[in-house]
User: Which sequence fits this backbone?
């Protein structure tokens, strides 16, 4: 019934697509399908960039080990499935807790001594990423691991079919699941930061640490909790992505650059900018990759981000501050 209703609503697009196909042009349905599949890319970018927006955007920590926390979340998911035969959804809380605990230990032992020293923080987190990859290789070896996605998330939802019943515009349930998880985490993070006392303490510490200490805020605990939360979000990203990609020690490096692109494009001071940056980069990459090819699309998107940073270094969204 749903497919019939959607097909009726999109019938003008279907007729236009058929006319363009008859003329030898690019089918509109194919472009729409590519744009719809770009939603999955948007969800992945939002998941991977959200944790970095906390550690860098809020705490101003240049965390080059962010990709390794994504990798750790994927390995925790694999371990839960391998040992306890857990469903992917049930492994998400374990991925969050495991990476958050590791993040708290990292903040307590390394990051806490480097606040206000960006170059040393960059070098320390880069070294940490190498150490984490090495430790994972020692424990799990370099052999590729695989995570099973739930059977109830397999298949596609079809929005438009042709005369023969073949899908013209469709998106997989797992891609919808990814964007749903990403939006839910974004909403939860916004609530925690702007609707709770813990969020007010975080903003107070980042704006004026000395004054926050004078008012009785435990700044060290706030720092550790904030960094751990950002690492936990990265762990959730790893858990969700693990069903799409083989789990391996270097896998986090594939998402590190994309996460940084999302954060600097959207603006480091506003969480809503992460959503805007993810949408622009994800959809642009999907459409350009269809028109040209994927490597060229990545180069063009990266060039566009560089131009944006050159003329608007604060990103698309930023907090207005008094001068």
Assistant:
């Amino acid at each position: 019934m749903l497919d019939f209703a959607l097909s009726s609503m999109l019938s003008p697009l279907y007729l236009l697509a058929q006319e363009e196909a008859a003329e030898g042009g690019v089918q509109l349905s194919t472009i729409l399908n590519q744009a719809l599949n770009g939603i999955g890319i948007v969800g992945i970018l939002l998941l991977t960039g959200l944790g970095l927006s906390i550690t860098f955007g809020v705490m101003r920590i240049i965390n080059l080990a962010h990709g390794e926390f994504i990798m750790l979340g994927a390995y925790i998911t694999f371990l839960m499935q391998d040992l306890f035969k857990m469903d992917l959804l049930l492994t998400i809380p374990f991925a969050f807790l495991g990476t958050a605990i590791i993040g708290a230990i990292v903040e307590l032992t390394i990051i806490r001594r480097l606040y206000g020293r960006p170059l040393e923080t960059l070098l320390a987190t880069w070294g940490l990423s190498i150490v984490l990859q090495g430790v994972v290789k020692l424990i799990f070896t370099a052999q590729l691991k695989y995570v099973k996605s739930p059977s109830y998330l397999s298949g596609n939802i079809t929005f438009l079919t042709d005369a023969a019943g073949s899908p013209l515009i469709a998106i997989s349930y797992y891609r919808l699941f990814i964007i749903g998880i990403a939006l839910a985490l974004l909403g939860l993070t916004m609530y925690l930061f702007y609707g709770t006392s813990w969020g007010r303490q975080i903003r107070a510490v980042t704006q004026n640490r000395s004054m926050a200490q004078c008012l009785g805020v435990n700044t060290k605990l706030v720092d550790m909790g904030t960094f751990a939360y950002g690492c936990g979000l990265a762990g959730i990203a790893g858990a969700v992505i693990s069903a799409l990609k083989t789990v391996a020690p270097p896998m986090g490096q594939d998402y590190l650059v994309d996460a940084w692109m999302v954060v600097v494009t959207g603006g480091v001071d506003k969480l809503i900018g992460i959503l805007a940056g993810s949408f622009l980069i994800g959809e642009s990459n999907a459409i350009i990759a269809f028109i040209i090819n994927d490597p060229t699309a990545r180069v063009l998107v990266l060039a566009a981000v560089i131009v944006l940073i050159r003329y608007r270094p604060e990103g698309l969204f930023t907090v207005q501050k008094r001068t």
Summary: Strands lie at 156-161, 167-172. The first strand starts at residue 156 and ends at 161. The CA atoms of residues 49 and 259 lie 4 Å apart. The chain is about 70% helix and 5% strand.
